[in-house]
Design brief:
By secondary structure, the chain is α+β, with helices and mostly antiparallel strands. It folds into two domains: 57 residues; 79 residues, no CATH class. The protein is built from two helices and six strands; from the N terminus they run αββββββα. The longest helix has 40 residues.
Length: 168
């Protein structure tokens, strides 16, 4: 006599798989949103750096404002600042915020002079020469962040699908 045993998948396993898959899916969507935001910043910096060869005109800019940013981790708190540089072209004032050049408080001083390169027919599109390398490293770090977040997003989506389908 042959005995055949059928394993019944109970309802709790199915609902648990769906719940866990849903949680993985939500986390994957959060990762995708953060990756999109970081990618947008990467594109913005890249667009500006790719147009740098068009920036043939130059002006003297000065730090007109220092924006204070408070940072903290589990044990320490500190204050950073990033400069806002103002410059004039044909009597009209322009400003650019250098958020990627954030540094410890005290590194920058109001009135500090910097060379600003801009596109002659589009003066608001500029790069402050001294901060070009910081801008390039910021773009590189954004690209690395996007790649890592894309891998995590793909992993979470794959985990969500396999969990929801009961393949895990």
């Amino acid at each position: 006599m042959k005995i055949i045993i059928f394993k019944e998948e109970n309802q709790m396993d199915t609902s648990f798989n769906l719940a866990m898959g849903g949680i993985f899916l939500v986390i994957a969507l959060i990762f995708a949103g953060v990756a999109f935001a970081v990618f947008s910043k990467f594109k913005k910096l890249g667009k500006l750096l790719n147009r740098a060869h068009l920036m043939t005109a130059k002006a003297e800019g000065t730090i007109s404002e220092l924006v204070t940013v408070r940072r903290r981790n589990r044990t320490f708190r500190w204050t950073n600042q990033y400069p806002i540089v103002s410059y004039q072209v044909n009597g009209k004032s322009y400003t650019t915020a250098l958020t990627f050049a954030e540094a410890r408080k005290g590194k920058y001083r109001l009135g500090g002079n910097y060379t600003v390169y801009y596109i002659p027919n589009e003066p608001d599109c500029c790069i402050v020469d001294e901060f070009r390398s910081k801008m390039q490293s910021s773009r590189t770090m954004n690209l690395v962040g996007v790649v890592i977040l894309a891998i995590l997003t793909f992993n979470m989506l794959f985990g969500a699908l396999t969990t929801m389908l009961g393949l895990a």
